[in-house]
Design a protein that fits this description.
Elements lengths: L8 H9 L4 H14 L20 E3 L5 E5 H11 L8 E3 L2 E5 H10 L4 E6 L10 H5 L3 H18 L21 H20 L9 E6 L3 H11 L6 H7 L7 E5 L1 E3 L1 E2 L22 E3 L5 H14 L4 E6 L9 H10 L3 E7 L8 E5 L5 E5 L6 H9 L5 E10 H14 L3 E7 L2 E7 L12 E5 L2 H4 L6 H6 L10 H19 L5 E3 L2 E3 L3
Parallel strand pairs: 1-18, 5-6, 5-11, 6-7, 12-18
Antiparallel strand pairs: 2-4, 3-4, 8-10, 9-17, 11-15, 12-15, 13-14, 16-17, 19-20
C-alpha cells in the first residue's frame, strides 16, 4: 500500500500546487493495485440492439408515442394538462401525437433540471497527437485553422472554449454560452404558453473540478451581462449563469502499462522530474459528486434531471424527448445515434446477457477494430450520445448502489505530456445498472454534435471540405448542417455580417 509518507516531498508539493487530491489519488491507486484491475475480464455482451420501439424508441421522425394509462395520467396531472391531449385510449394504452408530446414536454420544463458535465479541461481537445490521429489528410487540411484556435483553448475549461467558427472565420461563442442561450429561449416559450411557472424553469446544474471551477465562476460573472442572455434572464427569471455546482476532485495520472505493476504515480509530465499530471477521474464520478444536488432538486419539486457533456452542441432540452421519457415510465432514457467515421472515441450500445442494454467505451472496453468489423458485417452500430434523462425518484433511491457498482477503467495514453495511464469511470455505464433503462434513437446532425477534439469543431464549421476524404466530407457536411440548425433554431440567432448574433 502506498501512503503519502512514501512520496517524495517535492512531488507532494507539486501535487498540492496543481490541486490534486492526494488522498483520493492514493485511495484509487491502492484499489487498482489490490484488485488487479488490468486483469479484469472485459464486459461481456451478446450483440447489438435493434431500434424496436420498446427498449429503444425511434425519435427521428416520431409521429406519436404510446404510453401506459397510469403513467399518462400521472404526467398529465403533474403538469395540469387535460387528458384530451391523448388522441386514443385503447387497452390501457394512451396515444399522444407529436404536437401533444411537444406541449407536454414544454410543460415539463417546470419539472426538469438541466445538467452538464463540466469538469474537463481542453488539454486533450487541443492536443496535436490526438487531433492528428483522426485522419492525417483531414488534419493537414485544417492545420492552419487548428494552429490559430488551439492557443485559445490551452489551460481553459472546455466549456468556455469556442463551440464553432463564424462564417467570417472568427471564433464563435462558447459551448456554455450556447446552452445557456437555449435555456433562456425555452423559458420564453414556456411563459408564452403557460404564464408564470410554479418554480424555476430548467434549473442549471453542473459538475466542475478543482481545475476548472475558478475559471468557470469568473466566466459566469461575465456572462451575466452578455447580450445573448441579459434581457431574457430578466424577463423570465431564469438565470443559468447561477448554476448549482459540485466539484469533482482532481487525481494524478498513473504510470503506463509498459512500466509494469504495481502502478505508481506518473511523475515526469512533459519530461520534468517530480511533475505530476492532474486529471479528472472520469465523468462517472458524477453520481458521487452530484448526489446531494439530485436530492435537493427532488425536494424542490423537480421530477426529472437531464445530464450530458458540455462539448455536445446537440445536447439541450428537447420537449419531445422529455415527454417521451416522462411518459415511458422508464428509470431513464439515453440518446443514441448511428456511428460515423469521426466517432473513434466514446461509447457504443450493446446488449448484455441479461437482455438489458448498456454503453461501453471504444478503447476502454471494445477495440475500434471490432466496431469496424461489426459495420463490415452490415450491423447497425449505435453510438452513445452521452446524454440522458433520469427519473429523479428512481435515481436518488439507487444512487448509492450506482456509486459502488460503476467500474474503474485504466487506459494508456500517449500525448504531449508523455506516456501514462488514466483511471476513469464512465457515467454511461449506469445504463446497465438500472432496472428499466431505455434509449432514444436520434439523428446525429440534430443531437450528437460532440467535439471531443478541436478537429471536430473545425469540421462542424469550415465549409471547405473538398480536401477531405469522402466519408469525412459527408460527416462534416452533416455536422455543419446540425450546428447551423442549433444556432438558428433553439438558440434563436441570426447571421449578420458574417457572425451569429442575437436580435433581442
Amino acid at each position: 500500500m502506498i501512503e503519502s509518507k512514501n512520496l517524495n516531498p517535492e512531488l507532494i508539493r507539486a501535487m498540492k500546487e496543481k490541486k490534486i487530491d492526494i488522498d483520493a489519488t492514493l485511495a484509487l491507486l491502492n484499489t487498482i493495485n489490490s484488485t488487479q484491475i488490468d486483469e479484469k475480464p472485459a464486459i461481456q455482451f451478446t450483440g447489438l440492439p435493434n431500434i424496436d420501439g420498446k427498449v429503444i424508441v425511434n425519435c427521428k421522425n416520431l409521429d406519436f408515442f404510446d404510453a401506459p394509462e397510469a403513467r399518462a395520467k400521472e404526467i398529465l396531472a403533474l403538469t395540469n394538462l387535460p387528458e384530451t391531449l391523448a388522441t386514443s385510449k385503447t387497452n390501457g394504452i394512451w396515444r399522444f401525437e407529436r404536437q401533444a408530446l411537444i406541449r407536454i414536454g414544454t410543460a415539463l420544463f417546470a419539472f426538469t433540471a438541466y445538467g452538464v458535465l463540466n469538469g474537463g479541461s481542453a488539454t486533450s481537445y487541443g492536443d496535436v497527437k490526438k487531433n492528428a490521429s483522426i485522419n492525417a489528410d483531414v488534419f493537414n487540411a485544417i492545420k492552419p485553422i487548428f494552429d490559430t484556435l488551439a492557443p485559445l483553448c490551452k489551460d481553459k475549461p472546455k466549456g468556455i472554449t469556442p463551440a464553432y467558427l463564424n462564417p467570417d472565420g472568427s471564433p464563435g461563442e462558447s459551448f456554455l454560452m450556447c446552452k445557456m442561450r437555449i435555456l433562456v429561449e425555452h423559458a420564453r416559450t414556456y411563459h408564452s404558453l403557460f404564464g408564470k411557472p410554479p418554480r424555476e424553469l430548467l434549473p442549471f446544474f453542473q459538475m466542475t473540478s478543482d481545475g476548472t471551477d475558478d475559471a468557470l465562476r469568473e466566466a459566469y460573472r461575465e456572462y451575466e451581462q452578455h447580450p445573448w442572455l441579459k434581457k431574457g434572464m430578466e424577463r423570465t427569471g431564469t438565470y443559468p449563469t447561477r448554476p448549482r455546482t459540485a466539484k469533482q476532485p482532481l487525481i494524478a495520472a498513473f504510470t503506463h502499462s509498459s512500466h509494469g505493476n504495481p502502478r505508481t504515480i506518473f511523475t515526469e509530465a512533459y519530461g520534468k522530474p517530480n511533475n505530476p499530471l492532474a486529471l479528472p477521474g472520469g465523468h462517472g464520478q458524477s453520481f458521487q459528486v452530484l448526489k446531494n444536488i439530485y436530492q435537493v432538486l427532488l425536494n424542490d419539486g423537480y421530477r426529472f434531471a437531464m445530464l450530458g457533456n458540455v462539448d455536445n452542441m446537440g445536447y439541450y432540452p428537447d420537449p419531445l424527448l422529455i415527454a417521451v421519457t416522462a411518459l415511458s415510465g422508464n428509470d431513464a432514457m439515453f440518446e443514441f445515434t448511428y456511428r460515423t467515421p469521426l466517432d473513434v472515441k466514446g461509447g457504443i450500445v450493446v446488449t448484455l446477457p441479461n437482455g438489458k442494454i448498456t454503453a461501453i467505451d471504444i478503447g476502454q472496453s471494445i477495440p475500434l477494430a471490432q466496431v469496424l468489423e461489426f459495420e463490415r458485417q452490415g450491423k447497425t452500430v449505435l453510438a452513445n450520445c452521452g446524454a440522458g434523462i433520469f427519473d429523479l425518484k428512481i435515481l436518488t433511491k439507487k444512487i448509492d448502489t450506482i456509486i459502488k457498482s460503476l467500474p474503474i477503467h485504466l487506459t494508456d495514453q500517449d500525448k504531449d505530456a508523455g506516456k501514462y495511464s488514466q483511471a476513469e469511470q464512465t457515467t454511461w455505464e449506469v445504463i446497465g445498472l438500472l432496472d428499466k433503462p431505455g434509449g432514444l434513437a436520434v439523428e446525429k446532425k440534430q443531437r450528437f454534435l460532440a467535439a471531443k477534439m478541436l478537429t471536430e469543431t473545425i469540421l462542424g464549421s469550415w465549409s471547405n471540405t473538398s480536401a477531405f476524404p469522402k466519408e469525412f466530407a459527408e460527416t462534416a457536411r452533416l455536422m455543419q448542417e446540425g450546428i447551423h440548425t442549433v444556432l438558428s433554431g433553439p438558440c434563436n440567432l441570426k447571421l449578420l455580417n458574417g457572425k451569429w448574433q442575437a436580435e433581442d
